[in-house]
Every structure is written in C-alpha cells, then in structure tokens.
Amino acid sequence: MSNEERRTIRRERMQLVVRNKTFLVGCSILGFWLLLSIFGDLIAPRGASDQDFEFVSVGPSFKYWFGTDANGQDVLSRVILGTRLIVVMAFSATTLGTIVGTAIGLASGYFKGKFDMITMRLIEAISAIPVLIIALLAIAALEGRSPTLTVIVIGFVFTPNIGRTVRAAVLGEAELEYVAAARLRTERTPHILFREILPNVLPPIIVEFTVRLGYAIFAIATLSFLGAGVEYGSPNWGSQIAENWGNIYSNIWWPTAFPALAIASLAVSVNLISDSLLEVFEL
Amino acid sequence: MSTANTPTLELRNLEVAYTVRGIDREVLRDISLSIAPGEAYGLVGESGCGKSTAAFAAMRYLPRNGKITGGAILFEGKNIVDMADDEVSSLRRSAISMVYQNPATALNPTIRVGDQVAEVFQLSGISKSDSLEMAQAALVQVQIADPAQVMRRYAHQLSGGMAQRVVIAMALASNPRLLVMDEPTTGLDATVEAEVLDLVRELRRDTGTAVLFISHNLGVIRHMCDRVGVLYAGALVEQGATADLFNNPSHPYTVGLLRCIPRGGLHKSTDRLDTIPGTPPALGTHFDGCVFASRCSLADDNCRTQLPQMVTISGAHVARCFHSDKAISMPRSIEQTEFVSQSEIHATHSGDTLLSINHLSKIFTQDGHKVQVINDVSLNLGFGETLGLVGESGSGKTTIAKLVLGLVSPEEGGVVTLDGKGLAKTLNRRDVHDVGSMQIVFQNPDQALNRRHSVTRIVGRAVERLRGFNVSDAIDRAHELLSGMRVEASLHSARPVQLSGGLKQRVAISRAFAGSPQIVVCDEPTSALDVSVQAAILNLLVDLQKQDGVSFIFISHDLGVVRYISDRIAVLYLGRVIEFGTSQRVFNGPFHPYTEALLSSVPNIDGSIRKRIPLTGVVPSPSNPPSGCVLNPRCPRKAGSGYETLCETEEPNLTEVEPGHFMRCHIPVAKLKQLQS
Q1: Domain extent for A74
Q2: Whole-model pTM?
Q3: Burial level of B422, CB count in 10 A (0-12/13-18/19+)?
Q4: Which residue of B has its CA nearest to A17?
Q5: Could you give the ipTM of this predicted complex?
Q6: Where residue A197 sits, what CATH number does that domain have?
Q7: Which domains are seen in chain B, by residue range?
Q8: Do strands B386-390 and B568-573 pair parallel, antiparallel, or not at all (unpaired)?
Q9: Do A183 and B432 touch (CB under 8 A)?
Q10: Which of A177, A277, B137, B453 could make a disulfide contact with B442, Cβ separation 3.0–4.6 Å?
Q11: Residue B279 and residue B491 in contact, taking contact as beta carbons nearer than 8 Å
C-alpha cells in the first residue's frame, strides 16, 4: 500500500468522524463550557459576590439576563464563574480514577491468578456501595470541605469501573502473540504493560473516561448541592441550586433553573461525545 | 418452470459493487456462469477476488453496502434480481441453501442441536413432533454417529467436523435444488476435511443437488467439482471442465497459481517455487484492459488497453486472455536456481546436532483436571536443517514450540540443549544471547505485530534488546534487515494494519532475525496467506537458510509445504512423537499407520486418485487417552495385523525401524510395508 493510499484512508476515516453529528454537537457544547471555564473572569459581566440591593430576586431582564438571586447577585455571572470549578474538579477526578484504574486493570489482566482474584473481589466490594454514599461518608469522616478531597474521593470510587473495563480488554490482549514476541526480546513487564499492551486498550479507556466524566459532573454537582465537598460561598452550580430552590414556590425559578440547565448541558455534551466515540471505535 | 436444460443457477454479466467509505467499488465484473441441475461448479481464487461475494450474490444476499449494478441472476430461469423480497426469501427457504466456512458461528450456541435442525423443518410447515423425528433422520443422513445423543447437545459440545455435518444437515433439510458451499472445510483438519468432502460427494450423488463450491484450495476443488471457474479481481478469467482446466491451464493467472503450490514431492533442495509478481489490485480498481495485465509476464500494450473476450480453448473450456495459447509455457517469474544441497551447507558441521530436546512433557490444568498435552517428546535438529512438525490440531505442535522457546516451562525432567548448552526452563532465566538464538514467526501476523507500533519500531526494538545496540544503530540495522526481506523503505514508517498479509509476515520474519538467531520456529507462517504469497515467503525462508545457515522448526498442517521445506519430519499425535525421520522416509514410506491416513486424506491437485485410508472416530481427549497405543481405537492397520491385543494394552516405544527413521508402532515395519504396498 502506497503512502498516498494510506493518506486517502485516513482522510476518508476523518470525514467519517467529522460527519458524525453527535460528536460535533457534543464537542461544540463542551468547547463552549471549556472556554467559559478558562476565560470566565473576562466574560462574566459582574463579580461573583457583587451584590445589587436594588435588584433582589428580579427576573431575567436586559440588565440581568438570567435575573438575580435573593442576595441580589447576578445569576449569569455566577453560572459563568461556577464553570471553572466543576470542570476542573470533574476532569481531575476522572483522570485520577482513570490512571489508578488503568494501572490496576493492566496488572490484574496481565498477571491473572491470585493477584487478579483479590483485586477483583476488592473492586466488587467497593462498587457494591453507591458512589454518593461513599463520597458523603468519606467527606464527613475526614471533615473536609475542600475540592481536593472531593476529587480524590470521586477518583477513588471511579477506580473500580475503569479497572474492570481495562482488565477485560487486557485479558484478551495479553493472549495475543505480540506479547509473547515482546517477552522473546527480553522486555521487562512494565514495558510490556505500558508500551505494548496499553496503547492497544486505549479506545475502551477513552470511552470509559468520557462516560465517567459525565458521572463526575453529576456527582460533584450533587455533593455541592448537599453542601459537601466545596468551600462555602464560592460560586458553584450545585450550591446555587441548593441555596435557591426553595424560592421556586414563590415563582422565582431563574436562580435554580439556569445552573441546573448548565449542569445538564455539560453532562449531555460529555455523553454525546462518549456515544459518538463508542460508535467510531465500534466498541 | 425448470426443464431439463434450464440451468439451476445462471449468472449473466453480473456486476456487483460495494460502497466503501462513500464510494462505490466494483467487486464483480461481468461474471457469466451457469450451473446445471446436479452439477458441482467450483469457484477458485485468492482472498479478495470476489468468491464469497459471488456466493452471496447467488442468493441475492449481499451485505448492506453491496448492490447489484448490472446483469442478471437466474435461478431456474427466473431472474431473482428484480424479484420481490418475500419471493426471494421463500426461495432461500425452499430451494437454495448455504454452508459457510465456520460451522461454530453458523450454529446458535443457545439452542440444542436437535431443535435447531428441527426448526428448519418447522419453517416448511411440519409439526414440532414430526420435525424432531425428521431432524434425527437428517443427522443420520450426514453420518453422525449416535444422532439421538447429538440432538441433545449444544454447538460448543461438537467437534468441528461434527458441527459442519450438522450445518450440512440443516442446509439439506429443505431439499434445496442449489447448495452454495463457501469454504466448507477450510477450518478443519485434513482427515476431517476428507470425511466431510466424501460426505458432500455422496449426498450430491444421492440427492442430485446442484452445488456452487467455493474454495481457495485447488486440490479440494479438483476433487469435488465437475467444472471450475477461476476468479481474479472480480473477473472470471478462465472456466472449463475440471480435468481440462487443471491439465491445460490457459490463463496466465491459473498457470501462475498452479506453479506456486509446493506439490508432487517438490523439495527446496532441488526446486524453487514460482510466484506471481506484484500484488492483487485494491478493491474497486478500474481496468481498461485485462485485469491481470499488471502482473502478467505475457502482457503487451494490447492487454493493457483492451478488454480481452473469452476465447474457446477446447469444448467448454474458455479463457479470457489474448495469449491463451502461450500461457502454459509462459516464462517463470522466479529463476529456477539450484539450491545448495544441505550436505554442502553444513559440510563444516555435518552430523552436528544444534538443538536437542529430551523428554519434554507438559501438563496443563484445566477446570481442575490435569491434562498431559505433551508426553515425553525427544527430538533433535542439525545445523542449517529444517525440522517439520506435522499433526492435527490439538496434537501439541505449538506447545512444543513454546516449550523450546521457554514461553511455557516444561515439567521436571525435560531438557532443551542448544549447541551443547543446557537452557534454562523459562525465558526469564535465559540470557539475552540464548533468547536471541531462538526466535519465532507466528501464524497470524495481525496478532503477532503490535498494531500500534510502526514497522521500524517493531524490528528496531528487537535489535536494540537482543543485540544491545543503541537506538539509532538499532534502527539502521532494522532498516537493513527489512530491506533484505524486501520490505520497501517507504513502508518502514507504516503501521502493520497498512500492510498486506505477505508484507506483515516479512516484517515478522525480520523481527525473528533481529538477534541473529540460530533457530527460528515458524508456526504455520503461511497458512493465513494466499498461495502466491506463500510461495514468496517460502522462497525467502529457504534463501535465509542458505545465506545464514539458520535452522528452522517448521510447523504446518499443509503437508505439501512441510514436505517442500523440511529435511526431517516429526509426526505428532496426542502430544507424542509417533514418527520421526528424514523427509524422504516419512513421505515415501513405509508409513506409520497414522501418517499413512494423514497423507491419504490430502486431496491432491494432480488429480490422481489415491485410496483414502480412513481414520475412524475423533481425536480422543488428551485428558483421557486410550490405553495401549493412543492411536489404537482409530488405527487403520490394527485390525487383522495380528497385534491387536498388544496395541490395546501396551504403549509402543519410539524405535528406530530403519536407519534414521523412528516409529511408535507395534506392527513391525516389514509387515507395514507389506500392508501398504
């Protein structure tokens, strides 16, 4: 096959990805939130804690597009400024879970035997308890309200899922003859795991990462709604909802609805991307 | 409706295209052929030539991206191209059946075999209880022993041959007038293949069903079919009665194909295989002239610009070639250079043993049971020699290779000695030099090459580790090796997926040679390849042996290939060596009864009819081997030999029956010779 043919195939495959509407829509929404999370400070019309006592709980208007809450704070600005925290936390928690889970899955699937059995039983035990309960318990026990602790806890509870996915892929992969070929040129085990096998199990890992990212967004939002996991007073979507949802009964819906929409659209965008990746990788 | 002279199936100028990545690609070009009632028509060709597409098209059963772009498919005179979908379905239900290559995937794993066969009868409106009876009768018809018991089993509890019989029973259940068989025996062992082919031949005689038989194996086609069509790049290039076509091939492609195959006792010491230069065209390439012109040594300008028509050779034998008269005598593409005979190569080491394997055994634990897959195997291999390992699947060929390489450690007492030095049991304890001295070329290059790494990296890394070169020197050496194996420089940065099967195998061979090995194990290195590519790879291996004096352990189920390349042969059965000797001795007899049966089951291309020595029953499980000689329940020579009791009670030893020829058999060699003459 000539270089030109190879380029043709690559181009044709790229077109397939680019033509995938699900992927494009997901990427545009996620891209929008990523931009806000980076440049939020420049874009937000007002500061996070700026209060305007002439406008308290006023509905969407030309001056305050998303209205103001009971403290006279601009809902739009707080949604924009809340982006960074949830995006950074969700990405770090998922990345942490993916790295640890991948390492465990690789070792478990490659060594098999007793090591595999023990890790898998542990993983099953962890995944038997609902994510939020573990997270709440851990945060309560450690008496922390820091985002770092939340990230570590969520990363920890995601480890089993990723570990299992990776292990399943490695079990099949380790039987393939290129692994034997690597052993036959005296490669050490870490090289075989990370340089030979890992690149071949990346597609399921990437998909699992995006799936977990969606869950992470929800978990973080829920935890902050419940008042756990984030510092008090910082602009973040979950606590915004928690502070304002009681006012829905007085028809003041906007301080709740806009952060809720933000959470939903961010989670949906991530799910759209994971769906389209599933399709392209044919998993 | 059909009359005596209406063909059962007729393809008239059939054109089929597949839409791949949004573009229509031609896969069948102007195919015309017809199959008379009761006739067996064979379609041969290499992978990607459109054989299977033709089979599916005959049932108008193309994949979703396939479409018929021209021509007609007439089933008993009726064009099924413009038939309504439900009419076609009813034809498929009642008149046309298909048998696929892999019986394991053709059967539903969750339904008992009996119910599955009965279902076919129920589809034609037969009551449930009657259908079960008919299912059992159908299994009897395909010669399944103990059908009542087989009815209750699930697909995974059947052997490959048995599963294919069940599939055939299902295909015949509707009394089809056309049976399409797509590589029905390709995944089966030679002895099982022979049985299935015998069965198909008998059934055809009894039922008078027309058969479209598709295979890449010319020997099988020769034995099974009345007429043959040769496909190349989606075009029918030659067609005729089987004997005419094989005796007087008149298209350069057919001639090339026949010359590629190691057969009729060809041996590397005297013959070099011919190959077909170039590579088959990519899917959907457009041709102005002859589809084969770019690879044909007879091609002239006319061939490249004008589409040749079918010319009559004799009677119904036709070829699509301007030079059909010259085809049979066309020049070889590979010089018939004389290979230096072995005695010359290892004049320096003559008689020296490079590798000796002593008392290797291996026990695997399976579901808590101990299964002895290798039983006290001892073999040796000289400098620059090739040792062929032959045997059916499950005989332990690959396990022996893994034991020798240290990928699997042998049981206590097994010793592998290389060049006088005893090797550690496992790979981890062997030093770099020992590891580099013995390398392997695997059967399936798709699995053996890491698909995420480039060709340079795959070979370079092996040089780096095994020779201790630094990265840049290793890459230089890798490129040298690859060029030596004729992998062009432009492909060095490619990933394996971008290479053809033959090129992938060349990369795998380059990797095996990275550490300047003394022994390379070749585990079915050509069985995933087309015959023309196989010939080129075999030539390459022989050349390497000639240049470097490397020794090979060559594993293959293809006896023609093993015979061509091997100096010594070990025949394995149930993890035991049952015959060991020089290639000459093993192939010319006197034979061990098992070897005899194995050799007789290969359908040969020369068309000579050989009496088949059948092996009855199935290979016993290694977890529960028969008492006495492990072959005894199936042995074709036991009955009437006068050694029955001994055979059933005592396991024979591997004894030297002639100088350099070992056999594990109670029947004395003189007696065998007499029985086999």
Answers
A1: 14-281
A2: 0.85
A3: exposed
A4: B21
A5: 0.81
A6: 1.10.3720.10
A7: 9-225 (3.40.50.300), 249-338 (no CATH), 342-577 (3.40.50.300), 589-676 (no CATH)
A8: parallel
A9: no
A10: A177
A11: no
